[in-house]
């Protein structure tokens, strides 16, 4: 039996595993659109909401402000941007907007969706390949220190916080553990293969090598 060609890729990733850069590399190779911050921009334009406000709430649940105080200091992103939130928009509504957009993108095909529970939204779509990128904690710390120019303590705090936010997001809205390997077709340790090698492996599975 022939395997149906995959025309949509979802990438979930541990913070510091290089997921965003790998997705961009794959987008260039395949000529596919990459939907990461593009999701923020699309929702902002469609619903007339500030990009910065959507970005601040993206992939987070209602404990966002308290968690951001711990991660980024008093006030978090919203205080830093000084943007009054629209009264009608809550996290559940934003997730519904995000889910609707992911379904639309998935229907169009030739797209890479990074995070945002894309693997859950498109779980029943035969044309979608779901990938999880991971790496040992030390490798992630080293990478975040280098890429974001942070101290070791800052990198550790950033990784722990972002992983917790992503876990809470999936647990709250999809009632699952985002690291459960059974929710993905392919899991790759990017610290072993590197960014380019990881992209090569995904291309091979997509049948594009």
Give the key terms.
five-stranded parallel beta sheet; Rossmann fold; alpha/beta; 209 residues
Care to describe what's here?
- The chain starts with 7 loop residues before the first strand and ends with a helix.
- With 209 residues, the protein is α/β, with parallel strands linked by helices.
- The relative contact order is 0.21.
- Helices cover 57% and strands 11% of the residues.
- The protein is globular.
- It has one domain (8-206): 3-Layer(aba) Sandwich (Rossmann fold).
- The protein has a 5-stranded parallel beta sheet with strand order 2-3-1-4-5, sandwiched between helices.
Q: What shape does the CA trace take? A: globular
First CA to last CA: what distance?
21 Å
Order of helices and strands: EHEHHHHHEHEHHEH
Proportion in helices: 55-70%
- Give the CATH level 1 class: Alpha Beta
Total E-strand runs? 5
Low-confidence stretches: 58-88
- Coarse structural class: alpha/beta
Number of helices: 10
Total individual domains: 1
Average pLDDT taken over every residue: 79
Order of strands, widest sheet: 2-3-1-4-5
- If classified by CATH, what would the architecture be? 3-Layer(aba) Sandwich
CATH superfamily: P-loop containing nucleotide triphosphate hydrolases
Major β-sheet profile: 5 strands, parallel
According to CATH, the fold-level topology is Rossmann fold
Radius of gyration: 17 Å
